[in-house]
Amino acid sequence: MTIDSASAPPAVLVHLLRGTQQGEEDAFRELYALTHRSVARVVTATLRSPEHSAEVVQEVYLHVWQHASSFDEMRGSVLGWILMLARRRAVDRVRHVAGVVRRDHRDAATADVTTPDVADLGVARHEADQLRRAVGRLSDRQREAVVLTFLRGLTHEQAAALLSIPLGTLKTRVRAGVTSLRDHLAAPAASASSPS
What we know:
The chain is mainly α. It has 2 domains: 101 residues, RNA polymerase sigma factor, region 2, helix turn helix motif (Rna Polymerase Sigma Factor, Chain: A); 76 residues, Arc Repressor Mutant, subunit A (Orthogonal Bundle). Helices cover 77% and strands 0% of the residues. It has 8 helices and no strands. It is elongated.
């Protein structure tokens, strides 16, 4: 059976904290073992984020290790002191995160919004149409391989597995498809640049 802060006598926690004040690592480890579940519950209830909670729990125990001498028995229990530290750190983290979110929203609202040039939009639309036509001229197998690897972002291995074909076959289809696309896209550019 694991003993935790709920069942550990307060005198045991005081003894372990005194050992921690003397720099005794074993006493600190035992103090951590007896109290960390309670600390984690308090922190997690406040933050509701496992990543932030783990960081805050670590900060709490670093503070306990470095500032164990600041504990005053006359003002409360060891567990009460550690839980108070945990609540404060968790609330500080909530405030910090909220501040970052507010700052990000404010920065996003005040960022320069650039309006694309109408001519640039026309060029982009024309290039997209050319690419669409070039992809349409590929064989079904080439189109399938190119779309999976370039547009859907699959690796060659993933695309080969999805199509149930050998990896080498997929690579050949992709290579042939890309070469064909390059040729189709270069043809209009070449004819546009040739003298009339």
